[in-house]
Structure formats: C-alpha cells, structure tokens
## 1
Amino acid sequence: MNREQREVLADLAEGNIRFSCSMADYTTFKVGGRIEALLGIEKIENLLRVVQFLRREGISWFVLGRGSNLLVMDGDVPGVAIRLKGAFDAIQEEDSRERKCMAGAGVSLGQLLEFCRRKGYGGTAFLAGIPGTVGGAAIMNAGAFGRDMSSLISGLQMVTPMGDVVERDRDTLSFSYRKLEMPEGGVVTRVWMKLEKSTTPEVAGKIREYLRRRKKTQPLEYPSAGSIFKNPPGDHAGRLLEEAGLKGERRGGAMISAKHANWIVNRGGASAQDILDLISLARRRVREKTGIELELEIKVVGQ
C-alpha cells in the first residue's frame, strides 16, 4: 500500500488501525508475519466504505475474528486484516418466548454460551471450547459432537463484495459440511438464531460436559488452530492420519499431536513454515496410503 492508501484506511477506521502488525499476537497458532494493516471496524457504514475502497484499490483483505482456524505465513504479509468490534460485538434478545436472539459477527462463541447459560437457552453447548466468533462459525458452519451452526441459524446479515448490505432468511441459505455458500469476499455481520428451551442449570451442565470431553481428546494445552483437515465423506481425518503413523511427527517447534492426529500444535517457537511442512507431510502420507486427498479446514494467508 502507498502512503495515500494508508491515510484513507486510517480515516475509514477512525484511527483504529495498526501498521506492520505481527499476526502472531492475534492468531491461536501464535505464529505469523507482519500484516500491512490491522483495522478495527466498529460500525457497519465504516465496513461498507472499507470493503468498497479495498476492492476498488485491489488490496487483499480478510476478516480476522479471534484468529482461530487460520495459519498466517511468516515474513511480510500483504493486505489488510479486519477485526469486527463495537456494534458487531453485541448480543440482543429479540423474542424471549420464542428464544430468538441476534448476535453480531464479532461476538465470541464464549460470549454466546454465557448469554445462553444466563437465559437458559439450549442448543449451543456443542460450541463450548471453540475459540472463534459467531460470524466465523457461521461461515465455516462450525460444528462438533454431531451438531453444527446451521441447526441454530434463522437468518444472516452480510456485506457483499460490492459493498451492499443484504439480509438472508434461513431458507435462502445453503449450508454444507464446514461451509456456508456465500459470495467470495462477502462478510457476515449479524446472525439471527432460534434456540432451544432449557434451563440455566441444564445449559451449564452441558457446557461443562462438552468441555470435559474436549479436554480428554484434544491437546488444549498448546497453541493450535483446532482441526487441520476436514473429514472426508464417510470417514474421519484423525483416523486416517493416525493410521498413517503421523502422531508425534515434528518439524521445528510444530508437532502433530500425540493426543489427536488431526491437530498440529505449537510446542514453542514454531514457525508457520514448520506447520505448513507438517500439513504437506500429512497430506502426502495419507494420499500414498489411501488415495484420499485431505482438504484443509483451516485458511492459509500469505505466501
């Protein structure tokens, strides 16, 4: 970006901007080089103007969320990372009798779970322990333990790549495994949900149970991005990786977890390239052993 572009972005973000910002501080992997600019956007009108400007100027960008499900490569990373804050970081109850609520895309899944616990609204406990945002979870159709976000969502608001605001009802949305069909470059800004009838003690108990199950099977003690690969149809990536003898494989400070083969963890001092090398090794071994080409669940940003 040139100086003029930087000045425009700073104005559009109302000063909430950092240049040459280390992404290691903002990703759950705790790795990543320096992004050209990190913007905090608090109002939808500012987001519209930012998206329109970046598109017009041909500047690459992505929404950061809580930095999970993301591998940012080492070195200088061109483009802009956007964090949705302010108006995007709130939950509103819209109909208590019908258990309907609206969550901004920047709301963490932890915030959503706490809201549901207080209100006694069920159906979200499977999200316990996932370190993402409501917007990211909607786009990825995040799920666990046989449930996913599509079972909760009744509608979405999004900003299109052209910079328009649109609202979509559930029956016009197309969800599939770990995916919501939407235009490339679109941004989810609000999510409407219809939750299940429950009680505060029941919700709290289910959250504790799901957290216990995660702790037992997942290496939560190390920085990671969660599951690396999507499950292929009719199978589990973790099983394929384990049978290929990949548990415990290391490259630099990165390791394929001995607890769960579909997790790569940062044991300390890992680089993004270390992690990418393990990803390549895992895909090659599984392909050679089974003929299956594993598909990434995480997003890779940078060269």
## 2
Amino acid sequence: MSTHQRNKKSKTDPNSKNLHPRNLHVQAYDFPSLIKSYPPLAPYVTTNAHNTLSVDFADSLAVKALNTALLKHHYHIANWDIPEGALCPPIPGRADYIHYIAELLGVSEPPTNVKSIKPTINLLDIGIGANGIYSLLACQIYGWQCVGSDINTHSLENVAAIIASNPTLKGDVKLRTQTDKHHIFDGIIQTGEYFDVSVCNPPFHASSDEALKSNQRKISNLSHHSNEQKSTAAKLNFGGLDAELWCKGGERLFLKKLIKESQMFSTQCRWFTSLVSKIDNVKPAKKLITKLGASDIREIEMKQGNKITRILAWTFM
C-alpha cells in the first residue's frame, strides 16, 4: 500500500474561505447578481452587522432560496427545490468534494463547455438524497455521467423532477432505488458495469433523537449569531430527512458497511470515497480498509472557513 496522502492548503493561500482553488465560491457571494438570476432571493437578503449583504443562515427558507440562486446563477440548474424537511446542502462545500474527486481522478480544469465533450467519467452517488447535489454539480461542472441511488423513493422522485426541469441534464443522471436497507452497492451496481468513483455523504447520527438535538444546537448557534429567534417549526425542518441524517450505529457503522461491501465490487469501481465528519471515525475506517487489502488509501482534508471535513478514498486496483 502506498503512503497515505493528505491534501493541505498552503498557509499563504489567499483563499479566505479555504475552499478548493477551482471552487467558484472562494469569494463572497455576489448577491446583486444572484438576485438577478433568481429574484425570489431578494426578500431574504439584508445588510448584516458587518455592513455586508447576507442572508439569515438560521432561516431554512433563506438558505433554500440562496441555494436555488447559486445553482441557477453558477451552474445553470433551474427550478432546484427540495421537500419540506429535506437536507439543504451547503453548495460551496459540496462543490469542493467534486473538485477534490476530480483531482483524485487526475482530471484537469473543468471544460469551458461540458456539453461539447464526450463524458469520460462515470460517478456513483450513494444516497443521492432529495437534493441530488453531487450528481448535479458533477454533471454541470465536469460533464460526468452519474448514477444516483437512494432507499427513499420520494427523494428520488424529487431529483427526477429537477432533472425533468433541466433538459440538459436528461440522460446524464440516472436514478436507482436501493430496495434493501442492509445493502449499499449490492442491488445498485449492475453486472458488467464500471464506475470511476463513488461518492457518499453518510448519515451523521445514530438515532433520530441525537440528530434532532444536534440540529437544534446548530439552529440555536446560527440564531445567536444573527440575533434572531426562529420558530420551532423552522428548526425542525432545517436539518434533513431521517435517512439523510441518521442510521443505526451512526456514521461509524455506516462506514464499516460501506467499506466491507466495497470489497465485493472492487473490480467495478476504481475509487470508493466517502465524507467522514467525525475525526474519531477515520482511524478505524482506515484500519478496516487496510485489512481488506486496498492498494491505496487517501485522506483528503477539506477546509471550509473554520470547519474541517475529510474525504476518505480507497482503491483495490
């Protein structure tokens, strides 16, 4: 096994948000341009204590409107929407994952016209969710072909509606239902099929109660910083559907299942990857990957402001 590698930002990096250099969101949001692209964002934009334009990130509707505007303005994805209670992803952070995966695969700068190139990368999006964000960004930034799987049929229906509203996405994102909650790749990867990479954002928590408490802390902190109080309903609807936020055993057990099952499909996917939100889960995951005979393991550190998350990547090839 080759030496473990970790991507780190230079201390002299001028990128104030610490995002990937290719990320379109390295600078502050251009709210006037975003509002021009998506006028319904306007009511949520105000001048904050620093005398700059912003939105109240404790308000789920404001965050959703911002996401819709970002996807429309930067990625030409129209009519993006999620059901009430679905996970509302931070677009800059999700784009970072895709850019780091592109580096892992040896892909150079994004093409200027993704529709003019023949797709060369096949991506498997495990747990695509109702927002479909990784597949949508991978298609629009790099022109990749994506397959998204989920156990929640309502989530898949929502992604299908987004795709139907964007003709340029038709055929680029295929959706598959995972009918067995005990499996991840089995039942999704078909015989003779090959993927260059799989991506995954595992459920963080071990129970719905743990997820709810964490979510309430998050909203409380955001409300404190914005000096606003939000209703209980807004708090409950901010964080995500059950399958998106928690599973029995939490992130550690999910990673264990993901890693074990990846070995079964070691010849059908070049790189398996997953976000790991909790640092304590990295070491046992690496230990299991090594035990199963992976030929290479990478730990890619992503910094978004003061927050640090990690992509764990491994291959058996």
## 3
Amino acid sequence: MNDVLVGVDPQELSVPALVWAADEAAHRRVRLRLVTVAPPLRYGAFTRRSTLLIRAQSALATAEDLVRELHSGLWTATEFLDGPPVAVLRDRTADAALAVLGSRRLGRVAEVLGEASVAIPLAARAHCPVVVVRDPERPAVHPPLVVVGVDGGPGCRAAVGFAVAEAALREARLRAVWVWPGPFPYRDDTEEDLLERRRALSEAVAGWAERYPEVPVEQQVVRGRPVEELSRVSYAALAVVVGRGSHGGRLGSTVHGLLHRAACPVVAVPPAEE
C-alpha cells in the first residue's frame, strides 16, 4: 500500500513525471513501481505486438536508468502489462499510495474520447491520489509551496490531509485557498459573508497544524472562478492539490480545468471513503 506508481508511456517518455515520482518515492522511502501497459491489439497483429513489446521494454529500461541516476539507492520495480491502460492502471492503484502520470497535452476531445487518453480517466477513477505532471518543468521556487483548494465539499478533508502531508515531506509551505465563486461584480458581498467563509476555511484545516507543526500554513479566501484563481497561484507552487469529488467516474469541472490550465503538477485526491 506504500508504493509510488508511475505510468511509463513508451511513445512519449515524460521525464518530468519520472523526476516527480522518483523524488516522491525517495522522500517517502518506498518502492517506485514503473508500469507500462500495452492496449489490446486485433487478432493477427503479431508484428505490431512485437514492435510494441520492444519499445515498451526499452522505455522501462530507460526510465529505470534515469530514476536510479537521480536517486542511486532507490528501490524500483518494473511491470509490462496487457489490457486497457486505464483499467489496468486503476487496478494497480489499489496497492499504491500515489500514482504519477505525465500529460501528453491532448485536446479536450482527445482526452475524453481518444485511445491515448489516460490521465483524465485515471484521475477520475483511481483508488489513490493521482499526480498529473505537465511539460516542461519550471524552475523551482524557494521555499517550496504546496497549494490546496478548499470548498467544504466531501472530498475536501482528504485533499487537505494529503496536501499538508506532502508539504511536510517536501519541507514546503502550505497555502489553503477557498475560492468564493459568484457573479461579478461582487457589490453585494458583506463583511459577514467574508468572515463566514474564513471560518469555514479555518474549520477545513483545523487540527492539521497540531499534527504537522513544522508546516507553515497560510489561509486565503478569494473571490473569483476556482479554475482561474487556483491556476494563478499555481505559477508559484510545487503542486496544486484538489479533491476530485464524486461524479460517477467523471472529474468535476474544477479538477478538469486545472489539468488543462495549471502551471504545476495537479494532484486529484479521492474522497476518504473511496
């Protein structure tokens, strides 16, 4: 239950995703599991199957060499599996603490309907939190910052818990952001409305400071659209963490929007009961 799983795409190896996953496994002192999945091929496609196998083995070997260069003592394992990639990876997330994927920057239609679509459907259905790492890498910001979006929903507590633990692992600050959506302009807002949301935000992060006293926690209530506001703070962040919600196997609009617009890795955290 402690492995960090990283999906290795033999068609387009994501170095930033491998770096993130290797760093995460090193921080957690757990095994890094590198997994490549071959989708089903039509009967008789033996030549294509052989080519795919060679490419997959090469990608796994390259990925393993890279992560060992980054962390020489890292415990790694590789797997080459057959089947529908999303379904196979989802099954593997039942035994993982975290799954990491690179983003191929597909368009919205391709990510929903295309054969190469993995990141969005896996983020919506995985048993564990899923990190989607987009290219290219940006220069590190010091001291590091982890951002968590808070909305008071059922998945909020799990997202905050993951975010504060991640900040502790990475020796980072934590910024909890409550985006207060509504019509613009906000002329009817009152001081009482603002105080109510600040109280709700404080309740959402209550208790974590005692469990992780080493993590500085900032709380921020902002007016605007959640995707826009969280994308804005993502430029200074190591990661943006959000609860994925429960939408019948589909991502909520905020998570989906962040996967397209955030400037840093996005972590989609399932509700605790899942």
